[in-house]
Amino acid sequence: MTIYSIRITMQDGSARRYTGLFACGIEAVLQTMADYPQARSVSAICIQRSKP
Predict the structure, then answer these.
(1) Cα–Cα separations (whole angstroms), residue 18 to 5, 7, 26, 51, 52
(2) Alpha-carbon torsion angle 32, 22, 2, 24, nearest 10
(3) What is the 3-class SS of the chain, one letter each residue?
(4) pLDDT level of residue 48 (50, 70, 90 thresholds)
(5) Half-sphere exposure in the Cβ direction for 46 (13 Å, CA)
(6) What is the C-alpha to C-alpha distance for residues 34 and 12, in angstroms, rounded to an integer?
(7) Distance of alpha carbon 46 from its chain centroid, rounded?
(8) pLDDT at residue 49, as a whole number
(9) Beta bridge partners of 19
């Protein structure tokens, strides 16, 4: 699992950020899009990868 910083830009231009634990960046973006269907854009930045 990897820690990601998620940034969400809403349709009105406001932005939200949160940190989450996901298997990969694609999962982070897809889950966020499912949680915030009204989002205009979503980005995920890897903060820390888990050690094997």
Answers:
(1) 6, 7, 16, 22, 25
(2) -80
(3) CEEEEEEEEECCCCEEEEEEEECCHHHHHHHHHHHCCCEEEEEEEEEEECCC
(4) confident
(5) 10
(6) 18
(7) 10
(8) 80
(9) 5
pLDDT above 90: residue 52: no
Q: 7-36: per-residue pLDDT in tens?
A: 999 999 999 999 999 999 999 999 999 999
pLDDT of 45 > 70? The answer is yes
Domain with 36, as residue range(s), is: 2-49
Q: Which amino acid is at 8?
A: I
How many domains is the chain partitioned into structurally? 1
